[in-house]
Design brief:
Radius of gyration: 15 Å
Strand content: under 5%
Structural class: mainly alpha
Order of helices and strands: HHHH
Shape: globular
Helix content: over 70%
Distance between the termini: 16 Å
Length: about 130
């Protein structure tokens, strides 16, 4: 299997794992210290809605990279290179935001995860 395909597969899996994490936050698992500044162990209902939206967005991002890398064949008139580039830019901003989180759990777990996702997506965007 080609390196590009392997990295694409890893990116898709990571997006799905983070989406699952967001779903766990939505249903009330005490993982809030890893997200949204780490203020709450269990997210209040208003923030659970935000996590639900985040989960949906992460699923869309996973789908974008699945199509972009050719792992999922879907007809689209959208310029996926631009969308993948925007997602990659978002990931670098997300990494920086996590780095400055007041929560040590978010800082030491989510920052490296987001940073790795950024680097992998950057590879995919640069070497398509």
């Amino acid at each position: 299997m080609e390196l590009y395909t392997v990295i694409g597969f890893i990116v898709i899996i990571l997006f799905l794992v983070v989406a699952l994490f967001q779903v766990l936050l939505v249903i009330g698992y005490p993982l809030g210290e890893f997200a949204l500044g780490g203020i709450y162990k269990v997210l209040p209902k208003k923030l659970r809605l935000l996590s639900a939206i985040n989960a949906f967005v992460l699923l869309v991002m996973s789908g974008v990279f699945a199509v972009y890398t050719g792992l999922w064949s879907v007809s689209s008139s959208i310029n996926l290179h631009i969308v993948a580039s925007i997602i990659t830019g978002f990931l670098v901003l997300n990494t920086i935001a996590n780095l400055f989180s007041r929560s040590k759990k978010e800082k030491y777990v989510m920052t490296p995860l987001s940073g790795i996702m950024f680097l992998l997506c950057l590879y995919l965007v640069l070497f398509k």
